[in-house]
UniProtKB/TrEMBL annotation:
The protein's name: Metal-binding protein
Domain of life: Bacteria
Cited InterPro entries: DUF2103_metal-binding
Family annotation (Pfam families): DUF2103
Organism encoding this protein: Anoxybacter fermentans
Amino acid sequence: MGGKYRANKIKQEHTIIDDIYPLLLKISNLEQVHSIIPGRINRRSGSGIQPYLQLKYNTPSGIKLIAKTSSSLQEIFVVTDNPEETMKLLQQMDFVK
């Protein structure tokens, strides 16, 4: 297995920020989303913010998000055939800022 596996549509190659995982599970339930691929976690100085996801931009395979908590940042890649529609849906459902 090599340390890589999938739970639902979420690829588990790297650690996922604990507070962000429930948001990723909700996003994985969307029909337009084919896969969610979390990247590496980077540390940041604490600011006491609540965990949230921020839209960044479209990628060739979908959307790039940034997961933010008071002490960490993590890139999240969402694979979808229709990035624009998926971005609008994520905003409407308050999954992202």
